[in-house]
Every structure is written in C-alpha cells, then in structure tokens.
Amino acid sequence: MADVRVKICGLTRPEDVDAVAEAGASYAGLVFFPKSPRHVTVAAARDLALRAPVGLAKVGLVVNPSDALLDEIIAQVPLDMIQLHGTEPPERVAEVRARYGLPVMKAVGVAEAADLDKLDVYQRVADQILVDAKPPKGADLPGGNGLAFDWRLIAGRRWSRPWMLAGGLTPQNVARAVAMTGVAQVDVSSGVERAPGVKEAALIRGFVSAAKVAEAVPRL
Ligand SMILES: O=C(O)c1ccccc1N[C@@H]1O[C@H](COP(=O)(O)O)[C@@H](O)[C@H]1O
Q1: Taking every annotated instance into account, which residue ranges of this chain make up the domain N-(5'phosphoribosyl) anthranilate isomerase (PRAI) (predicted)?
Q2: Is the pLDDT of residue 117 over 80?
Q3: Which of 41, 121, 161, 190 is the most buried (most CB within 10 A)?
Q4: Which of 11, 59, 61, when mutated, tests ligand 1's pocket best, judged by the most ligand atoms within 8 Å of its CB?
C-alpha cells in the first residue's frame, strides 16, 4: 500500500513551506479567511505558493467565497486545488469547479451519524471530500479548531472520490486515526503549531513520519 498522503494546512511563513516540503507532505494549505489566525493575504499567498517545490500541491482554503475573491486568488496564486470549507451547497461546488477548472475539495463537518449523508451528496460534485470535525456551536472558525470527532463513525466507510480526514489530528494520534478509519490522506493545522497560526517544524516532521508509518498498521 502507498504512503499515507499528508496535507499541512494554514502555512503563513516561507519557513513553513520549506518544513512541509522537507518533511515529505503532499499538500500545503493556504487559508484565505480573515477571522483565522492562519489567514494570509493574496500577495503573501502568492509568495508562499511560488516557493513550493514541484510535487507539493498548493491548496487554497476559502469559506463561502464570492466569485470576486476567487477571481483575485486564482489570478494571483498558482494553486493546484480549491478547498471549500463553508456552507457551500452542492450547486456552488459544481459552479466553482466549472468556473476555475481546478479540482475542488469540499469539507463536510461530522459530529454524528446523521452528518454522513452529506458526504454522499458532495461526493457527486467534488473531486475530493474532506471529512472534518463539525465546529462547536458559535465557533468563529468552521475548521481549524483542533477538535476530533468519533472516528468509529466512519470506520470502514468508503466513498467514490478520494477523501481526507481532518479535525484534531496530532503527531500522537494520527497513526490511530489511520488504523481506525483506513484513510489514505490526512489533513492537520493546529496539531502542528506551537501557538495559533504559528507552525512548528519539528511537529510537522513528527506528524508526517507518524502518518507514513501508519500505513503499515493493519486496518481494523
Ligand atoms: O485552519 C483554519 O484556520 C481554518 C479556518 C477556516 C476553515 C478551516 C480551517 N482549517 C481546516 O480545518 C481542518 C482541521 O483543523 P485542525 O487540524 O483541527 O486544527 C484543517 O485541516 C484545515 O483544513
């Protein structure tokens, strides 16, 4: 079985891009959401994206974006994928995909079994599905809260599109998450930070190596 692929989300500094590339991650996430401590301007994101080596896919994370915001980002930042992390309905996911010609990953928040129905709907319109923890009521951020959901809810579940697991992953728990769910891709933000919005290279390295070792663990 191939290595588990890792996305490190919320990079804000050039050294973060270097650390993510050196650790062997597959995706680098850039957050365009002003309420987030990981928010980057379009100009800063462009510099970060241009620094990424070939083979490191740049993912732009947006929350219920307008066409105007997406037009600006896509014109300036060389992205490989758009991550929709708001309440975008399936029609909007399809529209964004068609308008920009880039793969779209749709995040779906999970807290209980009933939330899984949404995954079936979005897998019909998105290129990838991000299975994330549902944010607590009243949270400022729709993701990036460092909270996990009960992975038993999706143990053994498969979808027709590639999917990623997110929410409260850390270097300590990622191997268990992979073993329990059988996921082939994982996404982390706050679990590799020393403070909100400040990534730590040693944690990034630890997370990527723990995720890659995890593929050797027999799936439950
Ligand atoms: O990271 C953020 O600040 C963020 C803001 C708005 C929407 C999503 C965000 N992050 C995404 O959420 C998942 C889970 O984060 P965490 O590991 O639990 O902190 C993360 O992988 C990002 O894709």
Answers
A1: 6-209
A2: yes
A3: 190
A4: 61
Question: Is 185 a pocket residue for ligand 1 (Cβ < 6 Å)?
Answer: no
Compute, in angstroms, the gap from residue 131 CA to the centroid of ligand 1: 11
Question: Predicted ipTM?
Answer: 0.97
**Mean pLDDT on 52-68:** 98
Q: Which of 130, 132, 174 to mutate to test the pocket of ligand 1 (most atoms within 8 A of CB)?
A: 132
How much is the pTM? 0.95
Does CATH place domain 5-214 in 3.20.20.70?
A: yes
C-beta 29 within 6 A of ligand 1: yes
Return the active site residues.
9, 132
* Cα 148 to chain centroid, rounded: 14
Give SS3 for 27: strand
Distance 60 CA to ligand 1 centre (A): 12
Query: What's the 100 CA to ligand 1 centre distance in angstroms?
Result: 23
DSSP strand pairing (27-32 vs 57-62): parallel
Residue 178: what are its φ and ψ, rounded to 5°?
-65, -45
Give me the pLDDT at residue 2, please: 72
Q: Residue 47 — φ and ψ, nearest 5°?
A: -60, -40
The residue behind tokens 């579940």 is 157
206 lines ligand 1 (CB under 6 A): no
Residue % of the chain over a pLDDT of 90: 93
